[in-house]
Amino acid sequence: MQTRFTIATDGPGLYEITGQVADWVRGTGVVTLFVQHTSCSLVIQENADPAVQRDLMAYFDRLVPSADDPAMAYLTHVQEGPDDMPAHIKAAMLPVSLQVPVTDGRLALGTWQGIYLFEHRRRAHRRKVAAMMVPA
Amino acid sequence: MQTRFTIATDGPGLYEITGQVADWVRGTGVVTLFVQHTSCSLVIQENADPAVQRDLMAYFDRLVPSADDPAMAYLTHVQEGPDDMPAHIKAAMLPVSLQVPVTDGRLALGTWQGIYLFEHRRRAHRRKVAAMMVPA
Amino acid sequence: MQTRFTIATDGPGLYEITGQVADWVRGTGVVTLFVQHTSCSLVIQENADPAVQRDLMAYFDRLVPSADDPAMAYLTHVQEGPDDMPAHIKAAMLPVSLQVPVTDGRLALGTWQGIYLFEHRRRAHRRKVAAMMVPA
């Protein structure tokens, strides 16, 4: 049981995909989500206050500044734009795949957990997330 | 084959859960551990010298200071206390789930690897970790 | 279906293992790779421009400086060399395990994705990566 989700992104931010994953899973087992790119991530985060998502982005933008920031002058892979190498760094640090247990067709998420694609690039992208269900 | 572990925490720190996971798994396959919260994490770390765990905590506290630190003045999600948004950030950066191969009922951990719940919040919590075994 | 890969490392850096993983997997399911150490990591990163890998290493070396850097004077687990505790920190922050969907014997990697062992220690090591395939 497998599929591939496509998520259209329009600049940096967290794009919630909990609903489409929840609609797709069934049975009992573990669902693996795997993002087929090296400049965006998958994260599970609080789905209640949108300020959490803004603060997360603000934090990671400070932790990994744009390549045109003097603090990042040592970067050499800069030909694809100042947001590209920082996106690779964030993609190494944040999950490329997520695994969530599923019981009787329901994701075992906690009350406040949502699943997000975290886009790190500025221009619009169509991101692909491979999904596979393995039975318990 | 599934269960849910409850771990009582009493402030920031690493709480070892290797024993209860090792006692529960059986057969051959992969065990998924999934923490149902957005302000604590699961990590695999050295189980020999307790100084490693203290140093880890010290590092992440410096990397993600408390919201009342002037360096974090840009945070806006602060109504749940100065340790809350930093806990969300650490929870995005550190694993929400872990997968460990199991062979004939034994976790394939290296000699020095232990499994820990990493609590980021100051007040006491009861943390839930969903566990599911999928056969190889 | 399980195996263990051994990767000889000779100092810090990214060592590509995509080929040996691709050659080993078969059928349809999810492959779990699990590194049995607490001072190296597994990452999925761009396999096109080697500058990406150099920049990644440079970034993480700045984020987690050597223990003999004055900024790290608070570390106490220093008896195994100045590169040891920073290696544990990087190993907590970067993946200890990876899961990749496999369809008809093919890894579902994106065009630019390669699988790497990320060595954080300076001296030579023989690193072990447990691999297990679970059917979908």
Low-confidence stretches of chain A: none
Biggest sheet strand order of chain A reads 1-8-3-5-6
Total DSSP E strands of chain A: 8
- Total number of helices of chain A: 3
Order of helices and strands of chain A: EEHEEHHEEEE
Helical percent range of chain A? 10-25%
Q: End-to-end distance of chain A, in Å?
A: 13 Å
How much of the residues of chain A is beta strand, in percent? 35-45%
Query: Mean pLDDT of chain A, nearest integer?
Result: 97
The chain pair with the largest interface is:
A-B, 34 and 31 residues
Biggest sheet record of chain A: 5 strands, antiparallel
Oligomer: homotrimer
Radius of gyration of chain A: 16 Å
Going by helix content, strand content and strand pairing, the class of chain A is alpha+beta
**Gross morphology of chain A:** elongated
Describe the structure.
- The structure is a homotrimer of 136-residue chains.
- Chain A is α+β, with helices and mostly antiparallel strands and 136 residues long.
- Chain A contains three helices and eight strands, in the order E-E-H-E-E-H-H-E-E-E-E.
- Chain A has helices at residues 18-24, 50-63, 84-93, and strands at residues 2-10, 13-16, 29-35, 40-46, 97-103, 106-107, 113-119, 124-135.
- In chain A, the strands form two sheets. Chain A has a five-stranded antiparallel beta sheet with strand order 1-8-3-5-6, covered by helices on one side. In chain A, strands 2-7-4 form a three-stranded antiparallel beta sheet, sandwiched between helices.
- In chain A, a hairpin with a 2-residue loop joins strand 5 and strand 6.
- Chain A is elongated.
- At the A-B interface, strand 4, helix 2 and strand 5 of A face strand 3, helix 3 and strand 8 of B.
